Amino acid sequence: METALAETVASRFDVQFRPVVWPSGVTDEAKQVIYPESTYDWFDSEELTNRVQQLIDKRIKSATASFTPKQLASPAFEGYDKIGITCSECGKWKWKTPWNLYDPYGDLPPSPIIPASEDRPIIRSRECFGDHGVVRYQTLMVRELAELLAKASPRDCYVFDGWKIRYV
After folding, report:
1. Are 19 and 30 in contact (CB under 8 A)?
2. pTM for this structure?
3. Best exposed site among 14, 15, 133, 158 by fewest CB in 10 Å?
4. What is the pLDDT of residue 25?
5. Which residues contact 141 (CB under 8 A, 6 or more apart)?
């Protein structure tokens, strides 16, 4: 985000930033939010495994109907039937993305369970999602911060009310 917006956010919320590093070097023109990682798993591993496997089964059924066996044997489809991979750089498990771009939360298990001790204005899940080079985390933030970011950048941010958070 632009530095001016980052300064506004930092003055109102306990949020940390780092400079964006462009190929030409570090710049003060933009800042990136540092999303602190939750100290707890948000999703039940067994339920998440089942959801991801259901998604993969749908993808395989669709691909089998749309592509030839030779195409399905190509490197483009390598790992298509796996529920996730271990990152070769950091060693972290990465679940296959259990959602689509048009309904980003529809295929996730219901309501993450987040301990009340995780009372922060912005936080991300421990669980990592993605395919190939894509890495995503589920994130939560307080409504006032979410609305501020969505108003400043409606093309990149939106407020989603789909989860009913259960604090324990």
Report:
1. yes
2. 0.70
3. 133
4. 77
5. 121, 122, 123, 149
